[in-house]
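Schema walk-through. Below, the input block comes first and the output block second. Nothing else is stored per chain. Lengths vary across the set, and this one has 308 residues.
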Amino acid sequence: MNPLSLRIAIPNHNGARHLVQTLRSLNEQNSSVNWWLQDDQSCDESLELARALARPDDTISCEHDSGTADALNKAISRMGGDIVGFLPPGDYLLPGAAHRILEEFQDNPGTDVVASPVRCIDARGQFLQLHRTRVRSLQEILDIYRVWSKGRRLVPAGVFWRRSLWDKVGPFNIHYNLSFDYHFWVRCFRTGIRIQTLSIPLSATRANPSSLPIPQADEIRTIVQHTLKSHPRIGPFFLWQLQNRLSYDRFLSGQDTPPNQLPPPLHQQLSLHPRWLLIPSFRRQLYGALRRRFFGSSLSQSNTSLHP
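--- output ---
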């Protein structure tokens, strides 16, 4: 059996500050891993640093792109490799990671994806916490309230997949600037992928997997809503719960309110969505609104995150 090859795409725009650590972590693996830097015409020292570290089979491509998803699509479609993944500048592989990744795929021919815990670090590279990925099904990846936002999400630095899966599912959707990877994994799980989850970390990230910016949370809710409309194979009770919570969160975030218009009053929404009373955060908001109306108490600002 021929040995598998690992290729890592690195989307970059003026990321010189942390780029060297990323590239060195790949160079210090073994000859089975090579990298492809997809640079968006950086005006810092990124290209000079990359050229100094590039080996014969590494590639530097410099051209304009329309965002991270577009840059990754360009890189992954061109760079080859049996197994692929991507690292933002500043994220890196731990020693021996490439060997373990390839070993898992070699020993498990039916595995489509290998995911591992990720070491979370701060801007100075200091260890903060260990993020443990654990997503095993379409229902779990759509469960953005109890799984995706509760410390079990798939973090790019710790996920690697077969090129055959990429060819089957298709490239990242550039419409989702912040959540293209989540959309990709939803599509993958809809095909019935087999994912192998490891117990030891293979990489480190400067991202914060436990925190989602509001624009990214909005994108994720939109992806989930579109997926639910296409009748995915998930449990009917879970589907009902998710639709209920999703409609309430979209009301809170204003996603369903036309521009330059105020959202409908809470009591009016309750008459349209009585099942919102089953949501703890809605009951808290309703209680606060009633206190303010009858007792003049101030109501704390609504929470528009993915958390309950």
